[in-house]
Task: inverse folding
């Protein structure tokens, strides 16, 4: 039996994080805390997708920076909107 490759570990991590977010959304009543936690995990998941599934780890630094900036700005907006 072959050992799972590294990419499969990242995919499993993305699935576990998604299930954790679903659990948080259904079980916790503090919407502000849940919004912050989900925004942080969205950022982390975005970084994983950018680096490993889109294979931008070795790409142009400006392109990678802009993609990462996308996953920093929008979750930040989610956090800000949780307080209003």
Result:
């Amino acid at each position: 039996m072959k050992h799972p490759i590294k990419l499969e570990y990242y995919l499993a991590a993305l699935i576990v994080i998604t299930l954790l977010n679903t659990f948080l959304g259904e079980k916790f009543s503090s919407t502000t805390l849940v919004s912050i936690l989900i925004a942080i995990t969205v950022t982390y998941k975005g970084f994983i997708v950018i680096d490993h599934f889109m294979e931008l780890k070795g790409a142009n630094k400006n392109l990678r920076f802009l993609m990462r900036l996308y996953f920093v700005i929008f979750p930040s907006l989610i956090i800000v909107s949780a307080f209003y």
